[in-house]
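Slide 14.
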Amino acid sequence: MENPDDDRPPTGAAEETTDAARRAPAGGEGPDAAHRASQQPYRHPAAGWGAAKSVTRVLMQEREFVDGPRAIFRMNHENSGFDCPGCAWPDDTKGLKLDICENGIKHVTWEMTAKRAGRELFAAHSVSELATWSDFALEDTGRLTEPMVYNEETDHYEPIGWQAAFALIGSELRALDDPNQAAFYTSGRLGNEATFLYQLMAREYGTNNLPDCSNMCHEASGRALTQALGTGKGTADLKDWETADALFIMGVNAASNAPRMLTALSEAYRRGAQIVHVNPLVEAAATRTIVPHDLLDMALFKSTRTSTLNLQVRAGGDMALLRGMAKAVIEESASDPKALDREFIERHTQGFEEYRALCEATSWDELERQSGLTRADILKAAEVYSRADRTLISWCLGVSQHEHGVETVREIVNVLLLRGNLGREGAGPSPVRGHSNVQGNRTCGIDHRPAPEFLDRIAQACGIDPPRAHGLDTVATVAAMHRGDVKVFVGMGGNFVKAAPDTPYTVEGMRRCALTVHVSTKLNRSHVEHGRKALILPCLGRTEKDQQRRGLQSTSVEDSMSMVHLSVGMKRPASPHLLSEPAIIAGMARATLPDSVVPWEHYIEDYDRIRDTMARALDGFEDFNRRVRLPLGFRIRQPARELVFLTGSGRAEFSSAPLPDVVPRDDLLVLQTMRSHDQWNTTIYSDDDRYRGVKNLRTLVLMNADDMRARGIAEGTPVDLTAISKDGTTRHLNGYTALAYDMPAGCAAGYMPEMNVLVGRADYSTTSDQPLMKSLSVRIAPSAAGSG
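Slide 15: predicted structure.
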């Protein structure tokens, strides 16, 4: 019999991705294309020895025997180390020396690779040829080493000097008829100082076209929290996670997307907290874990549970579950007045009576049908909630990437307000952000819909006259490029072509641009699907030393719980020709705005000067340079945490949105896209997904076994997927492998970015403008070709 606390791999299981697979030739189908695909249930704890083996393998494969271990002991160390370029989970507050995770180390090692994508690579391979390579093969060429410009006559990228590159950008931007014909995209890896300079350049130039990755992940969360509480961020911090009596974790795959959360979950279980996971899939993080820095547990192969209840809602059924919990609590209050915090509701909220009436009018039959759960299951969740003195609710993209993402986050706030779970320790809303500084990007000005108060402060602090009209977000930018309304696209990090929805449509839009500029560390798909003119500008990575005229520089980042702290690189840059992101932005700005009132060169000499300006321009950043050097940095104040609500009513506002119908019709299924474990955003490390038991396969679709039988689909056979967009158009993926997986009937799942082609240009939420990555209506049938 299997020992449930044993972290040893099952007999015969081969968890390793071989060197041959990782060295897959450029142009192959993927890193593991030559190896047999397989899938078996994963029955082991999250993290533990599986993570330790994976880290060791990665360090060996990249031959990072010195800098790799050094990075492990410098990552996430306050003020003297560099911030992990992966997820935005907060740093440990108790001085933990190994506040790291498997995915963070993979991410850092991938950046520190000894491989180089220099001028020799681009001389040997045309862009047309590079476009045929796999995404893995493109990134596996290594670090970019110098600026490159596309030569249309030869179809090759060729070296270009930095000043010539900046001059090209400046001439193209100055030649536009309207500043709004340019768009300035930001990924979540950009530090706060670079973020501030980037938005400053765009606004002095004259546009608010500042699409960013938040438009594709947590836009719904920010809008909902702003409407309900007057703040676009969660109010909980790490101490609240450490003191909550009940934790509800919704739409989160923590073991892969925020692995350091496993520490908080295991500690919560040990102190007796109730932990409820809500997800169509029971992910590894929702079962048990061995936290690698718990050395005794590692030595004894002793795991700790990370949940007390798992609820497998149908895709999009979270709102019905939450409303059912609220209905149960309100019904309980008829016999137990303490079930509701009536004093809190009366003093601090608005709209309760309307919400109460809505809950009472919603039938249990409808709640069961929409959630995919039984009434008994909903009541279990409600009992956990009503018995806890302090409750924290956390969520991620499984909640936000739906048509009704805003309404569902508002429902989370509704439930919290019922029992006064706001403004006190151990309670509150806590969205889990993805990329390391995506929240800081928004705080420091990357927002296509800036508040007038923010623009007023920027104008006063920086002496510019920023535009007031709203700009374009990600979805609107792609459409504008396609129409020819956006002619210049500048991307700071990321892989826009692969991250955006409707990949062919995005590619067409990019190709119609007069100029595309990508600031990157590695080669990716966006560099080979480019405008008529194109530049690749290589930048320093988070791990690398940033030396400027006044010495070694640090940058700051904001985690998902509003803590701001410094990050200092430790490694010599991959090439002497790399520039920092702030220096690149300053170079573009000076070439574009020769008469700029902003002291760009002065800023780049010493980033403290940027922070001094940010302290005057940004609310909550007062005395920035001193506070960011305090132990653990500082936390940006959240008024709602202090029960100060910057809403129209001055109170926390209940929402009374109608319950959406998320039950699929006819023979359609609701498909969600997701990451594999061996992946970070659009970067694919291998074709394995350890926690879901998948090896050597990414072109798959996970399905409920009954749904497979009803469609005549056998395990492991090829299927064709047809997505029906909101505008009635269809998109197709053929020859994907169908695998049975434990999930509710009517649901299916597969990997992004491959499945982004199924997200049509009309498939975005009307309340958040987010692409609907988690609620695609699809038809799945045995492959017409009969094989993959």
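Speaker note: The domain at 144-217+437-619 is CATH 3.40.50.740 (Rossmann fold).
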